[in-house]
Amino acid sequence: MKSVIDYSKKKMIHTLTYLEETFSHINAGRADVRMLDNIKIEYYGNFVSLQNISSISIPDTKTILISAWEKSMIKPIEKAILNSNLGITPENNGSTIKLNIPQLTEDRRKQLIKQTEKEAEKAKISIRNIRREANNIIKKRIKEGIPKDEGEKNEITVQKLHDEFLKKIDKILSIKEKMLMTI
Asked: Per the structure, how many domains does the chain have?
């Protein structure tokens, strides 16, 4: 039974990690290299991440600077950024690309908060599904012969894990919303 609880906890931790990673890609009006994680550029017939063909730096809180290792890749990088859903227009000076992170408008902040709430709700649903799956396994094991009181203790443990992770999701959401509303 311990393996069911351990497995459930691992899955819940994975869900929380995924939510944090998702939140890191949501632009909060500050420069963050993780915003560029999903950008892929065609490079000699393969699609590679931006980090694999350039160096990325943050000279200040509102600027990301991209220096391609090969000058011929500047145009494809610029095109990939324009085609992404970042909503940022790159400035190409021929040797580097500069991304100026725009100040968020009130409407855009509200959109991003709705997006973060939606992602947090998906994570909560995932946690609930993990709890349900664990409880189903526990009930199956009770039918197979483990003592009922041991099964009930494990269900209580799974419920406590569930509650703990929902609180963590709410905390992460609250922090992200504060970041988004800070000007």
From this structure: 2
Domain span including residue 145: 2-25+105-181
Over 90: is that where the pLDDT of 100 sits? Answer: no
- The per-residue pLDDT for range 11-25, each reduced to its tens digit, is 999 999 999 988 887
Claim to verify: residue 21 and residue 109 sit in the same structural domain: yes
pLDDT band for 136, please (50, 70, 90 cuts). Answer: very high
Mean pLDDT score of the chain: 89
**The pair of three-digit structure tokens given for residue 40, joined into one six-digit string:** 């892929």
Instruction: Pull the structure tokens for residue 152.
Output: 């009930």
Q: How far apart are CA 28 and CA 40, in angstroms?
A: 22
Q: From CA 124, how far away is CA 163, in angstroms rounded? A: 10
Do 85 and 39 share a domain, yes or no? yes
